[in-house]
Amino acid sequence: MTTTQTRALADAGPTFPPGFFFGAATAAYQIEGAVDVDGRGPSIWDTFSHTPGRTARAETGDVACDHYRRYREDVALMADLGLDAYRFSVAWTRVLPEGAGRVEQRGLDFYRRLVDSLLEAGITPWLTLYHWDLPQALEDRGGWADRDTALRFADYAAVVHQALGDRVPHWSTLNEPMCSSLLGYMAGQHAPGRRDPAAAARAVHHLLLGHGLATRALREAGAESVGVTLNFTPMSPASPAAADVDAARRLDGQQNRMFLLPVVTGEYPADVVADLDAAGAPLPVEDGDMDVVATPVDWLGVNYYFRSVVSALPEPTGKASPFIGAERIDDAAPPGPTTTMGWAVTPEAFTELLLRLRDIAPGLPMVITENGSAWPDTPGVDGRVADHERVDYLLGHLAAVADAMARGADVRGYFAWSLMDNFEWARGYAQRFGLVHVDYDTQRRTPKHSAAVYRDLARRHRESR
Ligand code: IFM
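# 5-hydroxymethyl-3,4-dihydroxypiperidine complex -> structure
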């Protein structure tokens, strides 16, 4: 989509049905800071980011956006943006500093204050229980590679629901278990920084088991809207050659189908199971597990950023792949513009993805829980951030969602990633995804041009109801 077309879309008015909502998303470790306040325990991301060589410029989430102290200001910003909904995550270690056992009331009180501020501002809270920050105490006992972590996750879900279930309507168990397992335990690019294919496969299954157990715990406690957020990267073969087609199949299997199919059908894809067994990294499924994993959910959270082009290589790449047994596979961006993350801008693949999900999980409503892009975003002399690339990305991807909906995809709402610039994990603070610019020296927040465009789009949509 060209810039002119996207502007025309913005001016053309709402293209979404009544009830469709617009929100923005964040995650605890990326924005909260205040890591040693009110009894919070250490998480794997504290350990990882403080380990030399793990993050860009040795950056950490120690301060981040200081949201723990500035949450009221941030909720006011959301209200100014006219957001219908806000997706945030709870830091497990604020609630259970050792991961299990002793509950830290001050941590729960913070989230209660945040949720109450949102409700007062008319913004619907969408709570994610796990966005990558496993208590270090649990990692020390094996982390997600250990089955017990799944049980502890369900206990944690029950504690949070008991404190906030009366005021939070929408609950998500996990954010992007692909990253928690494969980036964290296989590629070593994320916390806990392990490079162990067998541990990674164990982590995959225990995360999904934890999702199912937590879903059951939430339901027993009375939750009526429970979902899980998965990230999807469509994989296209670089050529019709059989080896490239097979490489794309393998990566699609491990990135997309290995997480989706167990949740919606109760089975791991047979080809993925065979690939993992051949790599000496079996999924540790026990009797009855798959029924738990497939505990029905009310919605599927879809995170989409870009698509990849996959080729089979004659030699191992030498780079740490997140995918098990993928040393001879190259996974690249298609030609064309890329964001500062090096990710392609491919809205058309978003439509295709949503149609594919519609076909794989008919009848399961979808929510776009993340979509967004990072750009240089330098403020001008007037202090404004004219982020036209983000506006184009945003409108192009919203058009892709609308297109999929017109073709039968049941999408209920859209969360922009992210509300504000934040700690982009191993890539640190240089990657700016926010609708709102953050000056990390002063913690000053400045809505970018994209924030105004998004606000106008949401407003026109509301007025049309
Ligand atoms: O910042 C992350 C987020 O935490 C999870 N999904 C992808 C985003 C951009 O990389």
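# post-check
The radius of gyration is 21 Å.
The CA atoms of residues 14 and 463 lie 9 Å apart.
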